[in-house]
């Protein structure tokens, strides 16, 4: 049964033509044609994973009526293996949603399911319920005792302007100071008009007024409330903006940049474009460029002296088609040479963006400066350089990259130590996230994660990305997507699905791991086979991880030996 389950899930994710996809569907249905009660948990899970993958790839169009009937049967799947049975029901519900085959009956039944993730997917499907029933179903989901269910209901509510109780419920949620994720999402949703404008403005002003000192970990509600206030009452937001612009927390100043753009404070954005934090600068120059009112090319050139890869990449991209041609060519080539000297693979995106401008504005006079990079440590950069040199000279050039040395694999003794290791992330707000590494699944990524944790690399870093009911991502020294540990690690993709609580490696393409991690807040099967899983949270999921929001600080990472 385990082999058949693996076969079923694999069949669903293969890249097949239309005819072969239909054949794959028939095979899956034949495997499950024994009645739900007789299907083992392993086979049931494999079948529904296969059907989900087929439905997702085809937008649900591929699923026949027979397949939909099979999924409806799976909505009521039970077995002694309660965890697997719940996953089967949740995946069946999600797949029916892909196929636009959910009815209010199935949503109603699933909102009563004992498993919170089945209820979460039901809450995510409230938009498919007729308006006459949606308010009652929303009320039930908002009142759910599991946070991720009520989060999903709130997100649906935020996107439903037709709901007469929308603003009333959002106002109540915005007052729930003990439920950070709920409160933050509600304050963000209040950036859209409500009938009682005065009450809406007061709710936002109350949240804005709570902004505290840099050490205050509860800044996010105030920051998002400020942006919402700027959307509906610019004059009120402008009056309170200065304390956010001058706040010591860079995350807060980034939100202040968004608010400044909404209220038309271009001068404030120009000040923020010289902020000590590269992330604040990045936000400011993007917002200034979006206004398209006057040239900021000189300002963008000034950003090329920084080291942050994200800021360099964004500035270089915004300089496309600049009238400052020769100046841009010189500045971007100088920045490329400087960043390349660090020999950090994680700077690839920034270096390639700089090369785009070098090619656009440079000429054959720069050939001698670029030729050494035919031997670059990054094969993609070396290929870019070869293409540019061919463009300028008209002669064929061949890249000959010289990759950086790789870390040795652990010896048997070190491997045994990794197998006995647990990593504990001590959070500034209190609580611990206990991660069990999986060296038998992702050896090289576990090796680096444990070593960096032991070396103190993660101490003081943040979870800079929070996607409710999807992932939290952190471990970047620059608190952004592009700043990470220098060398890349290769993908180590296994059959392990991205279930809730698994810990994965954030990448920007294949084999680009730079030690940034993410934790799955839900079963994210669409990530299967594309992102490395190297650990699993064994303690602290509901009471710590589920409450993490953007900017939460990892005080210390501790490596503990277990038996």
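^ Assign residues to that structure.
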């Amino acid at each position: 049964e385990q082999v058949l389950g693996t076969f079923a899930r694999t069949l669903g994710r293969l890249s097949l033509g239309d005819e072969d996809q239909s054949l794959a569907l028939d095979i899956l249905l034949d495997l499950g044609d024994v009645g739900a009660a007789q299907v083992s948990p392993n086979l049931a899970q494999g079948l529904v994973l296969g059907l989900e993958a087929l439905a997702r790839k085809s937008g649900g169009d591929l699923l026949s009526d027979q397949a939909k009937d099979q999924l409806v049967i799976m909505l009521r799947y039970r077995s002694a293996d309660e965890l697997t049975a719940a996953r089967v029901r949740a995946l069946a519900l999600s797949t029916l949603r892909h196929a636009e085959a959910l009815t209010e009956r199935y949503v109603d039944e699933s909102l009563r399911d004992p498993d919170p993730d089945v209820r979460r997917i039901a809450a995510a499907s409230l938009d498919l319920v007729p308006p006459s029933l949606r308010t009652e179903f929303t009320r039930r989901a908002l009142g759910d005792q599991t946070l991720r269910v009520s989060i999903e209901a709130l997100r649906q509510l935020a996107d439903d302007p037709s709901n007469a109780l929308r603003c009333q419920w959002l106002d109540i949620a915005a007052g729930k100071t003990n439920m950070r994720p709920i409160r933050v999402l509600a304050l963000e949703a209040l950036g859209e008009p409500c009938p009682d404008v005065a009450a809406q403005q007061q709710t936002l002003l109350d949240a804005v007024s709570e902004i505290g000192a840099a050490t205050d970990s509860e800044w996010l509600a105030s920051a998002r409330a400020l942006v919402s206030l700027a959307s509906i009452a610019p004059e009120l937001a402008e009056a309170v903006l200065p304390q956010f612009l001058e706040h010591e927390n860079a995350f807060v100043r980034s939100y202040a940049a968004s608010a400044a753009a909404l209220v038309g404070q271009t001068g404030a954005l120009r000040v923020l474009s010289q902020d000590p934090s590269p992330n604040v600068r990045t936000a400011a120059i993007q917002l200034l460029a979006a206004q398209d009112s006057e040239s900021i090319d000189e300002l963008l050139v000034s950003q090329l002296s920084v080291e942050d890869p994200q800021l360099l990449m964004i500035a270089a991209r915004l300089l496309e088609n600049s009238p400052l041609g020769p100046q841009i060519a010189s500045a971007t080539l100088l920045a490329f040479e400087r960043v390349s000297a660090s020999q950090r693979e994680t700077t690839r995106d920034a270096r390639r963006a700089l090369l785009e401008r070098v090619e656009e504005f440079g000429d054959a006079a720069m050939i001698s400066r670029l030729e050494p990079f035919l031997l670059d440590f990054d094969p993609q950069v070396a290929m870019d350089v070869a293409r540019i040199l061919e463009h300028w000279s008209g002669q064929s050039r061949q890249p000959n990259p010289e990759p950086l040395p790789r870390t040795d694999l652990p010896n048997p003794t070190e491997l045994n130590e990794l197998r006995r290791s647990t990593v504990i992330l001590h959070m500034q707000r209190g609580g611990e996230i206990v991660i069990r590494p999986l060296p038998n699944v992702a050896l090289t990524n576990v090796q680096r994660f444990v070593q960096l944790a032991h070396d103190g690399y993660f101490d003081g870093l943040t979870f800079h990305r929070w996607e409710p009911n999807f992932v939290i991502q952190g471990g970047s020294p620059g608190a952004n997507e592009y700043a990470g540990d220098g060398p890349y690690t290769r993908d180590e993709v296994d059959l392990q699905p991205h279930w809730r609580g698994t810990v994965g490696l954030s990448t920007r393409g294949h084999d680009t791991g730079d030690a940034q991690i993410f934790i799955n807040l839900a079963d994210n099967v669409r990530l299967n086979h594309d992102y490395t899983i190297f650990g699993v949270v064994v303690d602290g999921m509901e009471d710590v991880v589920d409450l993490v929001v953007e900017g939460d600080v990892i005080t210390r990472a501790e490596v503990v030996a277990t038996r």
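The mean pLDDT is 95.
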